[in-house]
Write a structure and sequence with these properties.
The structure is a homotetramer of 338-residue chains.
Chain A (H helix, E strand, L loop, with lengths): L12 H10 L11 H14 L5 E5 L2 H12 L4 E6 L3 H4 L4 H4 L4 E4 L8 H10 L8 E8 L10 H13 L3 E5 L3 H5 L8 H7 L2 E5 L9 E5 L2 H4 L2 H7 L8 H11 L3 H22 L3 E2 L7 E2 L1 E4 H10 L3 E4 L5 E7 L6 H11 L1
Parallel strand pairs in A: 2-3, 2-4, 4-5, 5-6
Antiparallel strand pairs in A: 1-7, 6-7, 8-10, 9-12, 10-12, 11-12
Helix pairs in contact in A: 1-12, 2-12, 13-15
């Protein structure tokens, strides 16, 4: 029973097949191979923005630090919820590029438009304070929740009115887009954001994230940053091939949907047993609050992380489903709860 | 009526005299002139640590970024209260050197030992999170409050137990040491901290802060950092001369005491008139909560900053006294309150 | 006819097979999967250093910036030949981490021990100059040449005597180790260097370089740096699997040998036709000096880069062979020369 | 006999007097005090550019790193002669801000236009190489030489044609402007450069350099950089007062002229005695080549640095004169030579 994460599994077989096929023959390198160019084209088509710049990198932290460093001047800062991946789980990668992250509380892992406005109000004494210039959000968030269309539109409006850039970390974008709670199209995400990325690693891919830059000003010198931060690998055909496979016949969405469905099922079971869920289950992550004794018992049979200790007797654990999660795993886990 | 800050005034005349005297003759440069060497010796004597390294730099932000960058490895972070100068008012200077600041709420501008411990508990998944390695505190704080001996000892204990460095920003150390609420000797500060600095600019000096490094490991290569960050000026005799003058006949303490006394008096007047003070008055800064109408009226006659807007009708303003504050200024201000 | 580079081709089929096999089942992530652990073990065995730390990253620039940033203090610099990859072809990646590269002329792409000593002599006024602390070399070099055992021993001696670290960029280490001119064993490389890496991308791999850290002091916090620089991907099994395949039955050496053999043959043909080679042909890169008219003619039929313009009538071109270079390509190219 | 440098002496008495006068009364801080505003105005008048931005900082390294970091994007590099202060004597301060310095040989400490063009030719493979974007020159140079109007115009032309910024380090600008060999007006320097600074420390000041930004694009956010790098001190009146004094009645030029005259005299004496000078004597620095035995003898009586060892029997020493150098010092030194 693996509920530890969505990257302890391999890639989807069709992705591996595509890799194998892409292996023969000569190709340009450094994002100019046929596969990367095609995959970029496919992504631009899907998001409805022909003028986007699409670039492939090996991992999410690299994508985040790259987009942020390429977008901001030295004294500009990025606003994020405290639980944001860049703020908590990237070992100061953004600060290493010289930029401050301004953390705000957020709600259910999501930033509130009012929090952005408050940060702006509080940063009114140039040049003694950093200049907030970007809002970083994740879709889905670290707590598996998603921004609704209304929420994203509102954040985008606050950003535009205040000349802030909006960047969306889409390490789990597939899960968000196929959430039963979702009302956002990927085209709309492309319209509302200045940059975002589509995570491959956690949804069927082997390794690779597709960065999408919508804003021309950030596109301009992006490849220099890509190279300078060590993110430009030679044989990019292997990134391109993965994303081509993932977006063929909607495999990407199918896999995310599968993971979500498992999570939903698991959520219903937990709720049915009276277990409190710390956050609403909207994608492939669940955060049940369980007594420590039960957690100990579960740990012997299932893989997952203890996420928080709300009090002395209980723990919040994180359960992550994937497209490989089986009905049996869910049933077995369910039985352990009784 | 100037309550805007403690650096809109000049230096103490004896400091200027000392500068003028130090001007003649040849001197070594780069911290090796007679004056700097003597001033360093005097400071080492006062703090009771012969083995300290003392270095003079032009300003507080430079002192902070320098000590922090010289002490931490790339992935190590510094813990500070949200209101800490490095966190709010230095335009991301610390992040520019690559290091994350982990902000905690604090109380009255002071960090709580439990907050440090909580940060440590929450940073237990190497290498995915920064490694908290330093605690930054200010004495006095941004709210004019001071750490008691008991509080500093406790913070120091938590730091030592957890292998954290303790760094004290002493831009207003004089005010703290001469506070009526103070029970800490400067020798004890030297014992409890790994590094601190003694602010000259805000207490009688022209420009200059004396960095004191107690920990041998940070002393070792400190001069390289000093040069690399642009902090090593040539004619350091002018720093040395200032600090010699400030520490002769306890001028430094006398001036700080004067500023504190004015603040105390002003605080009594405000309280007497039923004005609420947001923070206890312990040094030369006061934060009265006043109705906006009164604030408007005051602004026409007196210099000060509006610090916060707790609600729609009131403001927290900041009043700063200095060794140049006169009884007349206090009386005049007092009259305006009625 | 592809003589452009050694990364326009795909991976060796056995590498792809290995990837496909490694795809099934659950694995730990972040370098702790079975494949990475096994591959690291295999590499440690081959290099004869059980205590080495082996880590896998997606590309060479990332490997270089990572090792250098993890090894040096802020004010420490790395010495490299002018033509060094970190100095010329990484878009300032090392400087972006804050470190100066001190360039020296070198000979045939190789640093001379005397040049290192001269740099040390010229950096004798601390703290006004950077502190040279590391020597960066490539094996094979940017000109395809290799260090002999005697040369490496001598460089290592100078480094040890002067407390300098020695780091070897092994993007083309396979080519070096199988060069007919080579007298160095990989075990000796591990003994002489503090860190090096074994390039997978340019010799049979898909993407991935195996960083080997021999020096315990650099091993200690290396994973923090790995994460902070965005180099720690989740599904490292795909790196591990590649290197396991490459080092099984000496595939890695076999492929490099093939590439070298083609280069040797091509070199003999060129020399036979009276063409001058700018550098001795020792691995899979050749630098013939050709009349511009011939170069133009060749460009219509074959892929290669013009590397230098020594005078107005001639060009130095770079020809790179790989394990996929065919006898036909060499013959065809040879015919074009007549 | 002090020929060690031009900063072992104090400030000119009129500068100290001005400081003392500026000490009384309230002043705005952070470059907005009356003195800084007036001094900036005076400088803008002198250079004939009303729209320039003038800012004062404590030292030359700070001025250099600040202007360079404020002007360049992360992947952009600055071209400098090898002997340039930023390249050799600032402990990697520029690289610490993330930027590569591209060194060229130069002649007599001066960069040649052809060298700039060659660097541009050699950096034609974006995004794999840094983008050269700025040329850094010093007036006078590290060897005391100066650019003629023709030379500066030519460099400026190459920069403009190639979209490069031109930045002049004027730590010893006074010496240059009053050199008998000079044909450049300060107005022309302001026209030819995008930014430069006027050194106070080495020519009559106590500590302080006046940065002049001519290019609007660099002016825009400059104060944020100023604060972030720790260069923004509170009581800037003391910088302003110094520069006001220095530019009143042309004191600045008078002092520089004095230093130059001493150097010229010393140069004539040396030449008269058949001593070879490594570089032409144009300002206040001389580089005679002397037998080691004579150098040893001189070292017992006079202060100077040994700069180079051209061969086993001779040394190049550096002699620096200042406005305090006396005829006696020159005569005494001269006698030692016989």
């Amino acid at each position: 029973m693996n509920f530890k994460d969505d990257y302890s599994i391999g890639a989807h077989p069709r992705v591996i097949e595509a890799l194998a096929k892409a292996n023969s023959g000569l190709e340009n390198s450094y994002q100019h191979d046929t596969y990367s160019v095609k995959a970029a084209g496919k992504i631009k088509e899907i998001i409805g923005n022909e003028k986007a710049l699409v670039r492939f990198v090996a991992g999410g932290t690299l994508a985040n630090l790259l987009v942020i460093a390429a977008s901001l001047k030295a004294f500009e800062a990025v606003i994020s919820v405290e639980s944001g991946h860049i703020n908590l789980h990237e070992t100061g990668a953004v600060e290493y590029t010289g930029h401050k992250i301004i953390p705000v509380k957020g709600k259910n892992g999501k930033i509130l438009p009012g929090e952005i406005e408050k940060v702006l109000e509080e940063h009114q004494t140039p040049p003694h304070m950093v200049k907030p210039k970007m809002v970083y959000i994740s879709q889905s968030t670290e707590y598996g929740t998603i921004y609704s269309k209304e929420e994203l539109r509102e954040i985008s409006r606050v950003c535009k009115e205040n000349n802030l850039l909006l960047f969306m970390d889409g390490a789990r974008l597939g899960a968000a887009l196929t959430s039963p709670a979702n009302d956002l199209k990927i085209e709309e995400i492309a319209q509302y954001t200045d940059a975002f990325y589509i995570g491959g690693t956690k949804n069927g891919g082997l390794m690779g994230e597709a960065i999408v830059i919508n804003r021309p000003g950030i596109q301009k010198d992006f490849d220099y940053h890509l190279k300078q931060k060590g993110a430009l690998v030679a044989k990019t055909r292997f990134f391109g091939a993965q994303f081509l496979a993932l977006f063929e016949d909607d495999l990407y969405f199918e896999l995310a949907h599968k993971a979500n469905t498992s999570a939903e099922k698991l959520g219903r079971i937990l709720t049915g047993k009276g277990v409190k869920l710390k956050y609403p289950v909207q994608t492939n992550q669940l955060f049940p609050v369980l007594p420590d004794k039960l957690v100990e018992k579960l740990q012997k049979k299932a893989g997952f992380y203890v996420w928080e200790k709300p009090d002395e007797k209980n723990s919040v654990i994180r359960l992550v489903t994937s497209w490989q999660t089986t009905p049996e795993e869910i049933e077995d886990f369910s039985r352990l709860l009784s």
